[in-house]
Structure formats: structure tokens, C-alpha cells
Automatic annotation (TrEMBL):
It comes from Anas platyrhynchos platyrhynchos (Northern mallard). One of its GO terms (cellular component) is SCAR complex. It is found in: Cell projection, Lamellipodium membrane. One of its GO terms (biological process) is embryonic foregut morphogenesis. Belongs to the HEM-1/HEM-2 family. The keyword Cell membrane applies. This is Nck-associated protein 1. One of its GO terms (molecular function) is small GTPase binding. Keywords: Cell membrane, Cell projection, Membrane, Transmembrane, Transmembrane helix.
Amino acid sequence: RYPVESVQSIVTDGLNVLSDVGNSVLACGDPKAKPSYLIDKNLESAVKFIVRKFPAVETRNNNTVNFDLTKNYLDLIITYTTLMILLSRIEERKAIIGLYNYAHEMTHGASDREYPRLGQMIVDYENPLKKMMEEFVPHSKSLSDALISLQMVYPRRNLSADQWRNAQLLSLISAPSTMLNPAQSDTMPCEYLSLDAMEKWIIFGFILCHGVLNSDATALNLWKLALQSSSCLALFRDEVFHIHKAAEDLFVNIRGYNKRINDIRECKEAAVSHAGSMHRERRKFLRSALKELATVLSDQPGLLGPKALFVFMALSFARDEIIWLLRHADNMPKKSADDFIDKHIAELIFYMEELRAHVRKYGPVMQRYYVQYLSGFDAVVLNELVQVRQDNGLGFCRL
């Protein structure tokens, strides 16, 4: 039924395919034909590790957190959440979008091609957080892993003034013998990470992946600590998000969430009763600590090299407390108003400006110090870490 030429062509093509398969099998069996990464001695242990664990290769074997990836991921989610909440607060949004489309049709003779999608999105996101709770179900694991990686960072950044004082935080003169030693931390970027940003991540993040609050004690502890520390979050300028009421309204319609609702109410009471005084005492401590730091560094600017981390931490802590005060001053119950009137806030800002001026003036001193530090210390430690990872297999990062 088929032309002879076609049959011959099919047979020839088939023989060529079989020949190629045979050649590839021989190539895989020939050590000289293997890809270079399979015979690289430096990767030998990693390849053996992957083959041994295949197909369930655990790439998060060293509990290392990728700071930049985690921060950018969480910032992206919070920006998206904030935009959708702000959009839902524009009362005239339907009128504005509808008028635009009508004008587009009058001008161009047809509707904007994206109008149906935009219109449907406006309808779907009437209650943005409720919609996003459904939308983020497939992302719950990634999001909860990223949030739980804050389990050591956020509580350490959210200590009381007494705990800071007992630890002699930010003091250069508390231990004179170590004054010239470089300030070090295994989680360097986290030491001056914005407390305001972390609270947004935790509160909005656990609303979106709320199921983990019922199954993971660490997640629940982070959530409760954030709920006790603030009553509202800044969305944009004077637009704020009232945490406890919004969370309770979302959870009240979810079956089996009575315990979570009780948690929210207890945390709200704690925030109203104690958050104001806790932050007031922090500002009091920071005024003293920044004054001491600025005085010492003005006399000994060379300490900006080894103790630069202290300066950035001091500026970050003070920034967080000022932002918290401004955010809550107009959004807290009147019965605790005294905690939100700070006559000494200008003094704190003055010491912040003084520290910032030191950093700008003596920037070259800090640069020279860390150029030497890179070659004299970091290069040695990096060499050791690379050797350890080569000996133990690949060291991957996780959220």
C-alpha cells in the first residue's frame, strides 16, 4: 500500500536511530567520553552523595539560610499583599476603571483588551486577604519555611530594654579588653534587618499560610510574639492595617479555629496593655546607648572599623523604634496615650545623625580596615568552608 521509496526511507531512518542509540550507549560506557563534571575529583563526593540518595536528594542538608533570596521572596509577597489591600480601599475603583474603558471605547472604537481581566480581578479581590488565603495554598510550604527561618532572628530582635541593658548591648566600653576585636555574627545581615519588615512578613505571611499555625509550634510562637508587639502595620503613608481585628474577621469563618481566635484576642490585650511601655523603655535605653557610642567614636574613629556592626545595629534599632512610635501614636487606645508622647525623641534623632556623620566622615577608614580583613581573615575562613563542603558533599541553601 506504500511506495517502495517511502518504505526504504523509513527503514533507513530507523537504522540510523538505532545506530545513534548504540553509539550513545558505548559513549556512556567509555570513561573518556563522560562529561567533565562526572570525572572531576573535586565533585566526586558530591556526585556519590546524589547517587546514593537518588531520587530523594535532600538539598537542604546544612541548615544554611540564603538571606537575599529569603528577604526578596518575603518582600515580594508583602508588596503584593499591600497593593491588593490598598486597591480594595479605593472606593471609586469600579467607577474609575469603568469610565476609563468607556473613554477607550469612544476613542478607539473598542474596549481595552485587558479590561475583562482587570474587571474580574477587582470583583474577585473585594476581600483581598480572603482571596489570597485561597490563592496561596500551593505556596504554603515555601512561605512557611521562609517564615520559620526567622525563629532565631525575630525573637532576638524583639527583646525588652532590660534584656538589652543586661547584655550591655551596643556598648564599646563594657569590655575594654575586647574593644579592638571585630564584631562578628553568623547572621550578619539579620542583625540590622528592619523589625517593621519582619513583623509584616510574619503577620501577613501566616495569614496567607494559616494552616501551619495549627501544626507547627514555632510558627505559632512567632505569630503570637508579633501580635503582642504591635497593633497596626503601615501600608502606605497614613494607611494602616489593624492587625487583630482583620485577623479575627478572617479566622472567625474557618472551622476549627476557635483556639487561634482566642490567641488573637489575648495578644491584642497584651499589645494594648504592654506594647507601649515596652517600646518606650527601648527608646530610653537607645538614647543612652547611642550617646555613649557617638561619644566614644568621636574620640576614637578608628573603632569604626572593627565595630561597624554596632553602629549599623544602633541606627537600625533606633529607626525601628521611631517608626513604631509614629505608626502607633494615632492608632492606639486613648487610655495608654502617655506611652506615645515622647518629649525626648529629638535627642534620639540627634544621636542617630551624629553616628551617621561619623560613618560618612570616616568611610575611608572603614574601607581600608575591611579590605585588610578580607585578605587576612575572610579568605582563610572561606578556604576552610570550601574544603569542608567538598569533603562532605554539596552545601545547598534553602529559604
